[in-house]
Design a protein that fits this description.
Glutaredoxin; alpha/beta; six-stranded mixed β-sheet; 196 residues; 6 strands
Length: 196
């Protein structure tokens, strides 16, 4: 079992084969997730465990409506992939600090674990990465209204859904993002586009 959801080794391998590294996807398994490019991202209030709004339920798109940003929604992803993604986002946040770039990792909490449990786990991840910029946040569970508002598919085969946006408007989207060299390069290219 993954710390972020139920993912067996076989499911991880299958999801990796279905991983898409292009801005807008329709993966081979026919799974789609997230509102489409050009959509406006709605308000919601996750609990912030790290980042500038730590200890609050600040709305990412309300407080930072014009900022270039990334929201990575984590459903059933594995620790290794999530760790690599967080590291990449922290690096991007430092690189684009002058552009006021923001990065949020939103844990959907598919197993509906108690808030204190999730908070403690995310705090440890924040310490592990010495996070200064990336906001690790979480929701109470997959039935939260924000999940529907963002169109995030909670099928266990959808490990993650990433929105790259500016002015609250989706510029690119990645589903089942694989945080390998190729995937991170594609993510950085998409971030570069919204920070220009």
């Amino acid at each position: 079992m993954s710390r972020f959801g139920i993912v067996g080794t076989g499911a991880v391998a299958a999801a990796a084969l279905a991983a898409a590294l292009v801005p807008v996807i329709a993966n081979p398994a026919g799974l789609k997730s997230g509102v489409e490019k050009g959509a406006a991202l709605p308000a919601y209030h996750p609990v912030h465990v790290t980042g500038p709004d730590k200890g609050s339920a600040t709305c990412p798109v309300c407080k930072y409506p014009r900022n270039p940003a990334v929201q990575a929604w984590i459903n059933t992803d594995n620790e290794k992939n999530v760790d690599a993604l967080i590291g990449a986002l922290e690096k991007a946040s430092k690189k684009h600090a002058a552009k006021n770039f923001k990065a949020f990792v939103v844990f959907i909490n598919p197993n509906r674990e108690p808030g204190d449990t999730v908070k403690a786990r995310l705090a440890k991840i924040g310490e592990k990465h010495s996070l200064q910029h990336v906001a690790l946040t979480y929701l109470p569970g997959p039935d939260h209204e924000a999940v529907k508002g963002y169109g995030v598919n909670t099928d266990p085969r959808v490990r993650n859904t990433i929105f790259i946006y500016r002015n609250r408007t989706v510029d690119a989207k990645m589903v089942n993002f694989e945080a390998n060299e190729k995937g991170i390069a594609a993510l950085y290219d998409a971030i570069q586009h919204v920070t220009q």
